Structures are given as structure tokens and as C-alpha cells.
Amino acid sequence: MVSCERCSKEAKMLLPYGPHNFCEEHFLYFFENRVRRTTRKHGMVKAGEKIAVGVSGGKDSATTLYLLHKMFSRVNEIEAVMIDEGIPGYRDKALAEGKALCKELCIAFTVYSYKKELAVSMEEVKEKIDLNSGLGSTCSFCGVFRRHLLNKGAVDVGADRIATGHNLDDEVQSICMNFFDNDFSRMARLGAVVGSNGIKGLVPRIKPLYESPEKEVIAFAALKELPHYSDECCPFSSQAKRNYFREMLNKMEANLPGTKFSVLRSFEQLKPLLEKTAEHGKARYCERCGNATTTSTCTVCLKLDQLILEKKVAKKQKEKTLTCATTKY
Ligand SMILES: [Zn+2]
Ligand SMILES: [Zn+2]
Known about the structure:
The protein is of the alpha/beta class. Helix content is about 55%, strand content about 10%. It is globular and about 65 Å long.
């Protein structure tokens, strides 16, 4: 029997990167303490600030909401922002769990839906992509829309910061993907705190689970019995590329414990240099919708345009086929 390093009980959580061996109680203490240190080290939360938390209904955001509430609700107002992408049989189930957690913790929440805010659900986007693969991936639309609505939600509730559930694995996968893609300007925008660059209308984003491995977040949410939807895989996303990096990093972590933390530390050392060289677009506002952006038209409007154009192209093609059909006979 392996004993817990803090007491005489049997260790249930073996963390080879430490190495650390903990019983359930001391694992929970260790996990929580690390999140507290992460928030302090990166100056994520200041006394009196209002924090909006993006809640998806999954284990990451459930853990983020639970811990921010536990650590800061005495001096900080905390409110949840939920996004309904319009993915039937998936997000509706997850949001029900998110709402249950908010009710348990007595936290106010608002739901923003793609359909209501942007007039298009992800189910409709998926239909268009199925007709024309040239539009790109569902995730490229969903990511832009989600970031926009999370920010809008944070602005609407008057939040100073928006917390998301990104964990160590998510962050390290993104770092490696950008490195392998030679996309350093995108890499410069990663990190524990993503500032607003002084752009009014953009709320800085914080990632309290930035140093928490995914496996441990799963264990924490389960041991604490936090209401959450555990089928995390979105039915619309294949995420083939990210999955490839996830597998590679998990294999490396199993053989070389500590790899993920090591990649994160390397990135932290690189980040100041990346920021120096990265181009910072000037703060301006979208000509069409007024969103904070660095270009004349914001990415949300550009993505919505693609879908409208697609509609027009499809209509034209239909007309063309009809004309051809008539001339033929
Ligand atoms: Zn113990
Ligand atoms: Zn716009």
C-alpha cells in the first residue's frame, strides 16, 4: 500500500510528476491550494472586482465556479454567464447541470444563445458546412461566437474579469499547436491572464485552472460531487488536430512525468519576448456592429457574412441549375 504523504491513509491519487501521493482529503487540499496559488501568482482577482465565470456545464467550468466562489465570494461579486450554442442533445443537457450548480451555490446566471443574439444556431451552421466544406470547421465559427458572447455577457453584468475553465492540458495543447503551426502571434495571446490591451469593451480573461492537469480536474469535480455533464465531446467537432496533440502530450507525460508543466514553464519564459515582437492592433470598433476589434470589421461580422454569402451562393447555384435544366429541354 502506498501511503498519503500527509497522513497515514492509503494514497488514492498518485501524481508521478511530483511525485505526490495523496489520500482523497489531502488531494482536494493540494488541488485547491494550487488553484489559489495560480490566482495569486498571476494577480487574477483583485478585491472588490466583479468576476463573471463562463459556465458550460462541464467539469472544468464547474470546478472554476465552485473554487472562485469558495475563495473570493466574500470580497468579490461572482456571476455566471452561460452560452447556448444551439446543439440539441448536448448543450441543453450540460446547461441544465450548470444551472443546478449555480442554484446550489446561490450564484446568479444569464444564458446567451447564438440563435437569439446572432440569429443562427450551431445546428444551422453545421447544416451549411455539410453543404459546403469550404466554409471551414464548425469550431472556427463556434469559437468566435462563444468568445464574443462571453465578453458581451461580462460587459452586460458589469464584470471586471471573465474566468474560463481552461486547464493545464488545454493550454499546453494550444501552446504546442501554435508552435508547430509557426503561429507566434496567436501564441502570444495565450497565458493565465489575457489582457484587454486597453481596449474599452474587452474584458480581460483569467484561467484559474491554468496549472491544473485535466485528470485532476475530473477527480476534483467527481470527489466534490459538483453537478456537471461528463460527456464533454461536442457532437459537431472532430477536433482531429487537437486530439493528435492531446494524445502526443499524454503519451509523453506518461513516460516523462512533468512534461506538461515543463512546456508551460517554457512558454512563460518565452511570453515576454513574444509580446514584444507581436503586433498589437490599435484599439478600434467594428464599423458594422460596434464590437471592440483591431480591424475595421470584427471577426463575428466576418463569420456571419460567410454564412449569409453561403446562403446567396446556394440560391444562385440553384437558379443556375434550374436555368440549365430549362435550356436543356
Ligand atoms: Zn492524507
Ligand atoms: Zn462587427
